[in-house]
Amino acid sequence: MECPLSVDMACIDMAAAAHCAHPAASTMPNQRSDTYGDDPEVGERHSFPANPGTARAAATWRVAIQRHLEYRHSTVVCVHFYSAVSGNYIAGIKVKQDHGAVHYPFESDTTFKMQSPIFGWRPFEATNGGVSYTKGEPSPTPATSSHGVRSNDTTRYAERDLAAVTIADIERIASTKLEPGVGWYYNGGADQEETIKENKEAFRRLRFRPRMLVDVSWVSTATTLLGQPVSMPFGFSPSAMQQLAHPDGEIGAAQAAEAAGTLMILSSMSTISLEDIRLRAPNCTLWLQVYVYKDRALTESLVKRAAAAGFSAVVLTADSPVFGQKVMANKYRFHLPKHLRFGTLERSLPSATAESHADFDEFVDDLISPSVTWSDVAWLREVSGLPVVVKGVITPEAAVKSYESGAAAIIVSNHGGRQLDGTPATIDVLPEIVEAVGGRLEVYLDSGVRTGADVVRALALGARAAFVGRPVLWGLAYNGKKGVSTVLDIYRSELERTLRLLGCADVTELTPEFVMHKNYFWSPHCRQRRRFPSQREVHASDWPEWTALQRADDHKTSLQQQSHKRRIMNPSRENSQFKT
């Protein structure tokens, strides 16, 4: 029997595609068995394939949903795609059974919303003629059902996130406000996105070693970066086109950093000119990020303008001779809005407009010189008269080269997983880089820093400060300048709380003894310490040995499992040794 309501399966396809893009974050809840009335199969719980990760899985969802609709003889049908991460429905067509039992009751002609962790709200209409997408504002508040629950109010799932307590909360709320392509571009990584995941997971592999009975009634987070005082060892990495997230853009971020007494690195691809930002945030500590462009005069013009505007340093992005491939952003054809302006670049390059360069990555690829060498560090320092910070260092060799080339500091960074996919997590390479430079220049870190505790981990392993990029964009999308201030407040409170719980009253006193790798408990040093506790302290430099030991243990376990499997599959062969 055909379903009386014509359902546009394009809706299902789009939702399934969104689901496939986030396989680990999604599930589909089972239908309630009590909605089937006197169906012959009452009590049967129908479910659909969860966590689809391929186009084939999406097609499976489509077939399963359509068969379910036909089998249930529904007059009005709904299947929900549910995000376990955001706690929101990604798409839906409401369900009403012929038998009179109602699952999520509603009127047949109404407007619903589609939400995903990246896409944000997109309304579509469901009528007896089918499902169609619409543009415009979300629907008005639906009527209340007889049970006191709003019939079609999917917004109630977002309302419970109004209190932003963590950066994850900020990210979740911001994702509902960003335009689809913008969300993909901001949050996505390069290629398979292995590095973007590893950056965050690497921090979770570090454990704290707290000190007990230490006076932490007062803690200090103040430090200096290139001789300039900041209220905490935390700042903003360069992020392009911040007005895509909120009209406050770079000015809002700079004013929030100014109020917090911290530092902001301004992207040369900012939507507001560096002069206007300095005018609106006169006391903010600002550095300018630049590339070395094919037209050297353009680079020289930018750094001289920065020096004239009172910027304190130039940050050279060294890991991007070309831009990495943003797979999801390309799939959803992300283009710059025509009204967008490259405020900083425009004054030195009048043709730099979003209207004439809709594809941002292609535009920048055409500008950047792929022939940049270490000699350009000294050239930048000479033409700007400012200290140069090299961003994108992930090897000890590059760190030493930076020092020899005249850099004042380096940022250990893999560009947030947006350039070369498959590079190691920055927190993993930090100890050997700190050891290689030997205190001859300042070392900072970005990529994957999502909590104040992550900042503490980075400082303990030798970084002088940690920087973040995406959380600033999420803060802007969340609530403009106030949202960025909320992000800073969260990081500061988590930083201070972690210091107190760790038994450290000053960020400058953090050392590698405060953290340990989770494989510490597998190391021979740990076993030795259990016998002779005073023999030696364990340092981060021992991690490679621990990791090798862990791999050996894993290999041994694997061999044992294979042997056990052979015994199970062929018991007669295993028992033959006992036969005479």
From TrEMBL:
Database matches in PROSITE patterns: FMN_HYDROXY_ACID_DH_1 (PS00557), FMN_HYDROXY_ACID_DH_2 (PS51349)
Superkingdom of origin organism: Eukaryota
Keywords, alphabetical: Oxidoreductase
Oxidoreductase keyword on record: yes
Protein name according to UniProt: (S)-2-hydroxy-acid oxidase
Keyword Protein biosynthesis: no
Family: Belongs to the FMN-dependent alpha-hydroxy acid dehydrogenase family.
InterPro entries assigned: Aldolase_TIM (IPR013785), Alpha-hydoxy_acid_DH_FMN (IPR012133), FMN-dep_DH (IPR000262), FMN_HAD (IPR037396), FMN_hydac_DH_AS (IPR008259)
One GO location term (cellular component): peroxisome
EC number: 1.1.3.15
Cofactor(s) named in the record: FMN
Annotated ranges, domain FMN hydroxy acid dehydrogenase: 159-520
Catalytic activity: a (2S)-2-hydroxycarboxylate + O2 = a 2-oxocarboxylate + H2O2; 2-hydroxyoctanoate + O2 = 2-oxooctanoate + H2O2
Ranges of compositional bias, category Polar residues: 142-155
Molecular function as annotated in GO: (S)-2-hydroxy-acid oxidase activity; FMN binding
Provenance organism: Rhipicephalus microplus (Cattle tick)
SUPFAM superfamilies reported for this sequence: FMN-linked oxidoreductases
Family matches, as CDD domains: alpha_hydroxyacid_oxid_FMN
Annotated region described as Disordered, given as residue ranges: 26-53, 130-155, 552-580
